[in-house]
Amino acid sequence: MGDVEKTEFNLPPDTTRGMGRPDGSSVDPSVQPTDRDIETNLRPKSLDEFIGQPKVRNQLDLVLTSARNRGTAPDHVLLSGPPGLGKTTMAMIIAQEMGTSLRMTSGPALERAGDLAAMLSNLMEGDVLFIDEIHRMARPAEEMLYMAMEDFRIDVIVGKGPGATSIPLEIAPFTLVGATTRSGMLTGPLRDRFGFTAQMEYYSAEDLTRVVTRAARIMDVPIDAEAAAEIASRSRGTPRIANRLLRRVRDFAEVTSNGHIDLGATKEALVVFDVDELGLDRLDRAVLSALIKGHGGGPVGVGTLALAVGEEPSTVEEVCEPYLVRAGMVARTGRGRVATVTAWRHLGLQPPDTAPGLF
């Protein structure tokens, strides 16, 4: 068996213990948590704490409550949506709500069927197996997963050639939680085996303001309501980005003032970190500038844009373009990318009569 990337979480009900010793006491009172520790503490531990995604929360609450009442493992769950919306957090919450352990891996780590067999054979009854980017799992591992999801057993092939034999191996009933940013790349047989499918949506500014306020409270950082709303408005509808911007604004406030985050400090900090009022960063603006100033607003192919900004085409297409399209700044056409009126005006330029969205 090859090495498998996996982590087991036994989630405690209280994560507010100190750092340092195994019992939670602090070795040094001056020790400060790292950003990774803060990010872990910012994750909600229950559906009640989870902000946003009301439809998904309500549906999932019904699924989990019903499973608890029956004393069985919940149906397999598929979570789809853009990065940073809480799919991993939701998997942790499922394990927490069911009182079981969470085992984590990713699709690219499961290169062989043996890798998956090693994980499945070690599961205890009721465990939650979380596979991130499940659409990137190797085909042999995916085909083994079909039988495991339906019948809770796998066939292990021993030997090679004519002498190879298949040994059936029973596995404990478990719940698979799959996360994908590209649900269209999932095969039909795999998608059909999930009993519950949830589509995670981008967050509203109001929900993100609540996310920022909650995170600031956990981090023990004083913040004004206007500052929290400003950070939320520049976070692209994504809690992960909101938490990251909050940490950078906190750094700025601690260095330049008394640590209190007000609206003025927030705006100054986001200027320093190249995040404008619409949430665009340096690379986003570079793409718009190349599209408008370098090619008259398009149409331009994504490869040409990538060459102009010194990035890979996949970076422009997967990192920048989704938000620029959603923000109404770039239109995708059969001949290439075209800048809209909003993009021209955002760069302080007069749009031509042919720009999309002028009339």
TrEMBL record:
<comment type="similarity">
    <text>Belongs to the RuvB family.</text>
</comment>
<feature type="binding site">
    <location>
        <position position="203"/>
    </location>
    <ligand>
        <name>ATP</name>
    </ligand>
</feature>
<feature type="binding site">
    <location>
        <position position="337"/>
    </location>
    <ligand>
        <name>DNA</name>
    </ligand>
</feature>
<comment type="subunit">
    <text>Homohexamer. Forms an RuvA(8)-RuvB(12)-Holliday junction (HJ) complex. HJ DNA is sandwiched between 2 RuvA tetramers; dsDNA enters through RuvA and exits via RuvB. An RuvB hexamer assembles on each DNA strand where it exits the tetramer. Each RuvB hexamer is contacted by two RuvA subunits (via domain III) on 2 adjacent RuvB subunits; this complex drives branch migration. In the full resolvosome a probable DNA-RuvA(4)-RuvB(12)-RuvC(2) complex forms which resolves the HJ.</text>
</comment>
<feature type="binding site">
    <location>
        <position position="193"/>
    </location>
    <ligand>
        <name>ATP</name>
    </ligand>
</feature>
<feature type="region of interest" description="Large ATPase domain (RuvB-L)">
    <location>
        <begin position="23"/>
        <end position="203"/>
    </location>
</feature>
<feature type="region of interest" description="Small ATPAse domain (RuvB-S)">
    <location>
        <begin position="204"/>
        <end position="274"/>
    </location>
</feature>
<keyword id="KW-0378">Hydrolase</keyword>
<dbReference type="Pfam" id="PF05491">
    <property type="entry name" value="WHD_RuvB"/>
</dbReference>
<keyword id="KW-0547">Nucleotide-binding</keyword>
<dbReference type="InterPro" id="IPR041445">
    <property type="entry name" value="AAA_lid_4"/>
</dbReference>
<keyword id="KW-0347">Helicase</keyword>
<dbReference type="GO" id="GO:0016787">
    <property type="term" value="F:hydrolase activity"/>
</dbReference>
<dbReference type="Pfam" id="PF05496">
    <property type="entry name" value="RuvB_N"/>
</dbReference>
<feature type="region of interest" description="Disordered">
    <location>
        <begin position="1"/>
        <end position="38"/>
    </location>
</feature>
<feature type="domain" description="AAA+ ATPase">
    <location>
        <begin position="73"/>
        <end position="206"/>
    </location>
</feature>
<feature type="binding site">
    <location>
        <position position="240"/>
    </location>
    <ligand>
        <name>ATP</name>
    </ligand>
</feature>
<keyword id="KW-0234">DNA repair</keyword>
<feature type="binding site">
    <location>
        <position position="88"/>
    </location>
    <ligand>
        <name>Mg(2+)</name>
    </ligand>
</feature>
<protein>
    <recommendedName>
        <fullName>Holliday junction branch migration complex subunit RuvB</fullName>
        <ecNumber>3.6.4.-</ecNumber>
    </recommendedName>
</protein>
<feature type="binding site">
    <location>
        <position position="42"/>
    </location>
    <ligand>
        <name>ATP</name>
    </ligand>
</feature>
<dbReference type="InterPro" id="IPR004605">
    <property type="entry name" value="DNA_helicase_Holl-junc_RuvB"/>
</dbReference>
<feature type="binding site">
    <location>
        <begin position="150"/>
        <end position="152"/>
    </location>
    <ligand>
        <name>ATP</name>
    </ligand>
</feature>
<dbReference type="InterPro" id="IPR036388">
    <property type="entry name" value="WH-like_DNA-bd_sf"/>
</dbReference>
<dbReference type="Pfam" id="PF17864">
    <property type="entry name" value="AAA_lid_4"/>
</dbReference>
<dbReference type="GO" id="GO:0048476">
    <property type="term" value="C:Holliday junction resolvase complex"/>
</dbReference>
<dbReference type="InterPro" id="IPR003593">
    <property type="entry name" value="AAA+_ATPase"/>
</dbReference>
<dbReference type="GO" id="GO:0009378">
    <property type="term" value="F:four-way junction helicase activity"/>
</dbReference>
<keyword id="KW-0233">DNA recombination</keyword>
<dbReference type="GO" id="GO:0000400">
    <property type="term" value="F:four-way junction DNA binding"/>
</dbReference>
<dbReference type="InterPro" id="IPR027417">
    <property type="entry name" value="P-loop_NTPase"/>
</dbReference>
<dbReference type="InterPro" id="IPR008824">
    <property type="entry name" value="RuvB-like_N"/>
</dbReference>
<feature type="binding site">
    <location>
        <position position="84"/>
    </location>
    <ligand>
        <name>ATP</name>
    </ligand>
</feature>
<feature type="binding site">
    <location>
        <position position="87"/>
    </location>
    <ligand>
        <name>ATP</name>
    </ligand>
</feature>
<feature type="binding site">
    <location>
        <position position="43"/>
    </location>
    <ligand>
        <name>ATP</name>
    </ligand>
</feature>
<dbReference type="GO" id="GO:0006281">
    <property type="term" value="P:DNA repair"/>
</dbReference>
<feature type="binding site">
    <location>
        <position position="89"/>
    </location>
    <ligand>
        <name>ATP</name>
    </ligand>
</feature>
<comment type="function">
    <text>The RuvA-RuvB-RuvC complex processes Holliday junction (HJ) DNA during genetic recombination and DNA repair, while the RuvA-RuvB complex plays an important role in the rescue of blocked DNA replication forks via replication fork reversal (RFR). RuvA specifically binds to HJ cruciform DNA, conferring on it an open structure. The RuvB hexamer acts as an ATP-dependent pump, pulling dsDNA into and through the RuvAB complex. RuvB forms 2 homohexamers on either side of HJ DNA bound by 1 or 2 RuvA tetramers; 4 subunits per hexamer contact DNA at a time.</text>
</comment>
<keyword id="KW-0238">DNA-binding</keyword>
<dbReference type="InterPro" id="IPR036390">
    <property type="entry name" value="WH_DNA-bd_sf"/>
</dbReference>
<feature type="binding site">
    <location>
        <position position="332"/>
    </location>
    <ligand>
        <name>DNA</name>
    </ligand>
</feature>
<feature type="region of interest" description="Head domain (RuvB-H)">
    <location>
        <begin position="277"/>
        <end position="359"/>
    </location>
</feature>
